[in-house]
Write a structure and sequence with these properties.
alpha/beta
Length: 214
Amino acid sequence: MSNKKRSTGTAAASEASKARAAKLAEMQRQARRKDRRGAAALWVVAGVLAIALIGGVIYAGVARSRQMDAALGDVATFPNMSANHVETDVTYEQTPPVGGDHHPVWQNCGIYDTPIKSIHGVHSLEHGAVWITYDPSLPADQVNKLKGYAGQTFMLLSPYPNLGSKVALSAWGHQLKLDTVDDTKITAFIRDYRQGPQTPEPGAACTGGTSEVA
């Protein structure tokens, strides 16, 4: 075989090899593009599902919130409450009181098994506490359920003589009276009014005051 023929054969083989390499590279590029498109599609699907899930959770929460707000239609509101600090007894118009003049020292938030002084309790309401009061004759098992509600910050729980109902929930300028401790309104009231927008002194403490009882 002449040198010319060998050279021609070698060149042809080289061109064929280059063509195969180019074809392989193109196939690899197409495969990578396909993988990227597939991954992008998966991310889009995942994003849509995540948005749908979050939206469902938010919708359920809003729906439940609206239901609870509607259930709170029995809340009595008392606007324009005075808030002077006094060191004398105060006669309140509401039972239990939901605002008005009160002692300079607030009641430490917590659970009390005997009545507390209203002049201290009202000061705690001014700081954003919710005060749950109950008829002293309420059975122990029902009192224990109320203690479950009261086991968090900015909550007061105490018996209250001559309450006029089994349970009363009070916040500054707002009150809800109930005849059962198994009422979803209790949870709704606490959610809406504990450190709620009605609080005259938001951020003020509910500890460091007094634990004195009546």
